[in-house]
């Protein structure tokens, strides 16, 4: 009698606990393992650059690259001349903007900078799409604002670009990166070496 009761108790699973299937059950033909996900075969020869509009002629692009590399980014150029050069190539730049040497701007015509902004040495503004920087923003040394990306699920790896907006009084610290589609809120600090993606919810 006691042996029968003991076997009955052992057969009843404890309340709140799920029964663990045996190895035989897991390997049963009725429970085949899920097939592996197919690997994406990248074919970069199919890349077309669709959806990316440079907005200026090749001659105008070449003129900017020559100016940036031969004059704009050089240490000997007085900082007060850099905003004027950007304006000449179509950028909107406010008053009292300080731009240090070794700064790189992909396309000035995709750039808007407010008043009293600081842009430190080695900052890279990769603005395939518009970058908007409001007043009193500090971009510290070697930080990067990157509006460009690619569709990782597309074999042709086509562009997946989006604008960036930096709110008033924000600070993007040294070697931080702000990615495509991100909005840095007014007064927000993006820490050094951090990566800031899309707006947080």
TrEMBL record:
It comes from the Bacteria. InterPro entries: Hexapeptide_acetyltransf (IPR051159), Trimer_LpxA-like_sf (IPR011004). The keyword Lipid metabolism does not apply. GO terms for molecular function: O-acyltransferase activity. Keywords: Transferase. The keyword Ribosomal protein does not apply. One of its GO terms (cellular component) is cytosol. Belongs to the transferase hexapeptide repeat family. This is Colanic acid biosynthesis acetyltransferase. It comes from Kineosporia babensis.
């Amino acid at each position: 009698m006691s042996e029968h009761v003991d076997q009955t108790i052992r057969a009843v699973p404890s309340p709140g606990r799920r029964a663990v299937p045996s190895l035989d059950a897991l390997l049963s033909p009725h429970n085949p393992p899920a097939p592996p996900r197919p690997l994406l075969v990248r074919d970069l020869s199919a890349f077309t650059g669709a959806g990316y509009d440079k907005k200026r002629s090749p001659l105008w692009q070449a003129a900017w690259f020559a100016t940036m590399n031969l004059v704009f980014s050089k240490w000997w150029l007085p900082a007060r001349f850099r905003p004027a050069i950007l304006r000449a190539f179509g950028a909107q730049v406010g008053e009292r903007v300080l731009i240090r040497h070794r700064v790189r701007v992909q396309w000035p015509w995709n750039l808007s900078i407010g008043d009293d902004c600081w842009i430190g040495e080695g900052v890279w503004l990769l603005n395939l799409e518009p970058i908007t920087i409001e007043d009193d923003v500090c971009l510290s040394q070697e930080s990067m604002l990157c509006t460009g990306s690619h569709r990782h699920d597309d074999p042709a790896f086509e562009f997946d670009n989006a604008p960036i907006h930096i709110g008033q009084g924000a600070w993007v610290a040294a070697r931080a990166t702000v990615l495509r589609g991100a909005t840095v809120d007014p007064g927000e600090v993006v820490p050094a070496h951090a990566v800031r993606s899309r707006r947080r919810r």
